[in-house]
Recover the amino acids of this structure.
């Protein structure tokens, strides 16, 4: 399966609306929630079918199935409801025109929490911690050496369930070991290094690195191996390694501390190398939330050769103005995209450009701005058109179901505009890549 | 080993908290309930839990022998909220920023300055629980420094960050005038100028303006005053505070203490207890002794003027970094380290 030019993907989780997720929880759905779900499903089904092939297997409306499940007792419906929610997520992405399939992470819990399945040595704290505003969390603690049983096969089952409905290549998000460890209170490995007489800073860095290595070797690699082994022959899976706090520990990227830790590159880079073993049916992509990217992007192209797609968030700090100047396309995300090319991105490696912000309250992007965000790296930063993929930012979970659809439709409108401009400027044949809705519009 | 006495002199004068304190579960639950359904009854419960938390922490600090007692910051959702909610010309909401290196899930709302900023009445008083500290105790108030506010803000209205600093400092000056009657020590927290993300904006002109504004805020006041640097190396910032009118200076373990060249002639607050990480049980038990040894090592390296008072403290507040029971254990640990250093216990 060859990717379309400027192909699109989602990179985060979908809206956590109880109208959908309520099917997977105890308790009754309200009439208002059920009507909201009906509205959403009908909108998804009314979308022009994807540019990428036939519609998913279910040709009849999903609305009656939703209402039947909503009224069933929880204990009798979990399996069928998980199937339904997966099918709805897959259908939504398909009908919107995305070239990767997934379940909008609707069947998952939180990024770090989900990865703790079958992992020994961690405990969930009983007490709240304040995050900011009126947001709180209960963090996990590493209290013993990390171990892994793999008994639940949660990830493999999840991939198989998506595959039942998917037409496109399946994209499996995994939270990378660096992120899992840094989002967890690392009592055990930190304590071990402290008791060896190291100073607090170095003990913290080395403890986190060793815990990350254990997680990568025992957990992440085994999960990827299981996904590879359980995939149908000849089917390639896209494993997307995610991290929302890469640069939370700045000293990790200081040359003095890299040397003191006995490493050649920052711990994050070493852990990513460890987490991306080579399999013929696995390809790797990488999504990192808004962070100071300059700490590690210079290492990426040289060290992470097995990763083919990199995403650094551009739209959140970008202006909403149309245009291709550095004043219009600003922020640390663009700087990272520039650096990625400057530090030796290979021909087969790509940058994923998020063309629409998804913070709470985000508005659908102007398709012309989407077009310019896609064209900027091609026309100004020396990327080939084949090296660019397109996505919304990772926070679709912050949006309403309806707003997600509006944003993603405009992303595809903007992509069509970019393809038409490439046709004019690069003399490529854009027609095979344009969405069906665009073609039907221009052909009347 | 006798840790506390060098040439027969006591080296440490006391202990202090240096930031907002972790919240007890009862307060968190009240805040969550209010956030889900904001009504008068839930607001009343929230206020009552805030007061209980503050009174509990005050009693704890008194019992543990803290030299200055804080109210814990339990009425603050985060540091910049009073400025976002009460100042004219400032808007907030989206655009929260990851606060400090090493802090895993702690974010702050970022002030967006959209017009000439000024206060129309009191800014901070509704966000403090001053009355929870008996007047017989030495009261300490912790505020963000005006430099932090200027660095963390995004502004469409100000082309110069120096002008932004001056206007935030003007607001702070009036606030501190009001609070001076009720507090014995005012402590300005500075964790942004030490952060690499913001360091590019911290030039000599901005630091000179910071020093001038510290003078403006504290000139002629008898109150004890401090600037406390944390979250990064403060060496290039320290001289500006040493030249200013503040009486105390603080820095945490992130500052490379072996390379501070200055003669330190202000009272010191040493944030040597690393609060950004939790400790396992066995090391928590050992921490007071380790902290006491570390304190003495640091004091041997610094050039400290005669007559300077030295306080031991935490690197920063425990809010967002520790659960409440762990934070209390660390408070107790700090107190034990002090008692080792004063020869009270071994």
């Amino acid at each position: 399966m060859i990717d379309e030019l400027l192909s699109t993907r989602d990179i985060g989780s979908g809206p956590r609306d109880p109208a959908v997720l309520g099917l997977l929880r105890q308790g009754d759905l309200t009439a208002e929630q059920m009507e909201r779900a009906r509205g959403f499903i009908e909108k998804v089904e009314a979308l022009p079918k994807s540019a990428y092939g036939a519609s998913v297997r279910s040709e009849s409306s999903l609305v009656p199935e939703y209402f039947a499940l909503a009224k069933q007792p929880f204990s009798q419906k979990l399996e069928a409801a998980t199937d339904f929610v997966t099918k709805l997520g897959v259908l939504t992405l398909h009908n919107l025109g995305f070239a990767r399939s997934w379940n909008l992470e609707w069947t998952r819990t939180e990024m770090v929490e989900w990865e703790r399945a079958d992992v020994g040595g961690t405990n969930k704290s009983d007490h709240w911690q304040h995050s900011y505003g009126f947001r709180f969390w209960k963090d996990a603690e590493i209290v013993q050496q990390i171990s892994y049983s793999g008994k639940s096969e949660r990830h493999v089952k999840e991939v198989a369930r998506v595959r039942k409905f998917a037409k496109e290549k399946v994209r499996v998000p995994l939270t990378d070991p660096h992120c899992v460890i840094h989002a967890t209170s690392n009592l055990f490995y930190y304590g071990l290094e402290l008791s060896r007489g190291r100073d607090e800073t170095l003990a913290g860095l080395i403890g986190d690195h060793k815990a990350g290595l254990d997680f990568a070797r025992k957990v992440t690699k085994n999960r990827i191996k299981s996904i590879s082994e359980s995939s149908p022959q000849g089917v390639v899976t896209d494993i997307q390694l995610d991290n929302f706090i890469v640069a939370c520990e700045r000293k990790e990227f200081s040359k003095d501390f890299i040397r003191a830790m006995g490493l050649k590159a920052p711990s994050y880079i070493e852990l990513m190398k460890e987490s991306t073993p080579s399999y013929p049916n696995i390809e790797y992509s990488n999504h990192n939330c808004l962070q100071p990217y300059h700490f590690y992007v210079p290492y990426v192209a040289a060290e992470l050769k097995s990763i083919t797609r990199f995403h650094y968030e551009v739209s959140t700090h970008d202006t909403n103005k149309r245009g291709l100047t550095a004043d219009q396309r600003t922020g640390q995300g663009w700087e990272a995209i520039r650096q990625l090319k400057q530090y030796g991105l290979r021909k087969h490696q790509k940058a994923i450009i998020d063309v629409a912000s998804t913070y709470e309250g985000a508005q659908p992007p102007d398709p012309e701005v989407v077009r310019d965000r896609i064209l900027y790296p091609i026309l100004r930063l020396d990327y080939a058109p084949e090296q660019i993929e397109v996505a919304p930012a990772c926070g679709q979970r912050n949006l309403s179901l309806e707003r997600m659809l509006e944003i993603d439709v405009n992303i595809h409108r903007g992509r069509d505009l970019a393809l038409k401009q490439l046709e004019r400027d690069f003399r490529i044949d854009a027609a095979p890549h344009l969405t069906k809705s665009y073609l039907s519009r221009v052909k009347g | 080993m006798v840790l506390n006495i060098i040439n027969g002199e006591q080296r440490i004068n006391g202990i202090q908290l240096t930031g907002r304190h972790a919240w007890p579960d009862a307060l968190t639950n009240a805040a969550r309930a209010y956030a889900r359904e904001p009504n008068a009854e839930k607001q009343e419960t929230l206020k009552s839990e805030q007061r209980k938390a503050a009174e509990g922490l005050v009693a704890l600090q008194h019992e543990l022998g803290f030299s200055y007692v804080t109210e814990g910051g339990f009425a603050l959702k985060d540091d910049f909220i009073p400025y976002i909610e009460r100042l004219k010309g400032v808007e907030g909401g989206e655009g929260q920023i990851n606060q400090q290196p090493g802090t895993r899930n702690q974010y702050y709302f970022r002030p967006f300055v959209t017009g000439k900023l000024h206060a129309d009445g009191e800014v901070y008083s509704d966000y403090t629980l001053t009355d929870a500290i008996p007047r017989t105790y030495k009261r300490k108030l912790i505020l963000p420094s005006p430099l932090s506010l200027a660095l963390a803000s995004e502004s469409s209205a100000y082309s110069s960050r120096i002008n932004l600093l001056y206007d935030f400092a003007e607001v702070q000056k009036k606030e501190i005038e009001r609070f001076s009657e009720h507090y014995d020590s005012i402590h300005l927290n500075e964790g942004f100028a030490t952060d690499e993300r913001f360091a590019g904006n911290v030039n000599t002109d901005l630091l000179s303006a910071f020093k001038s504004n510290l003078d403006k805020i504290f000139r002629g006041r008898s109150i004890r005053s401090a600037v406390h640097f944390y979250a990064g190396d403060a060496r290039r910032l320290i001289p500006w505070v040493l030249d200013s009118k503040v009486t105390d200076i603080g820095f945490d373990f992130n500052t490379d203490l072996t390379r501070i060249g200055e003669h330190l002639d202000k009272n010191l607050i040493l944030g040597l207890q690393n609060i950004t990480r939790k400790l396992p049980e066995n090391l928590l038990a050992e921490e007071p002794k380790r902290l006491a040894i570390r304190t003495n090592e640091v004091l041997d390296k610094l050039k400290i003027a005669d007559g300077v008072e030295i306080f031991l403290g935490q690197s920063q507040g425990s809010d967002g970094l520790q659960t409440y029971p762990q934070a209390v254990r660390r408070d107790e640990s700090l107190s034990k380290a002090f008692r080792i250093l004063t020869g009270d216990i071994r």
Observations:
- Residues 162 and 187 of chain A are 36 Å apart (CA to CA).
- The two ends of chain A are 30 Å apart (CA to CA).
- The longest strand of chain A covers residues 140-148.
- The mean pLDDT of chain A is 92.
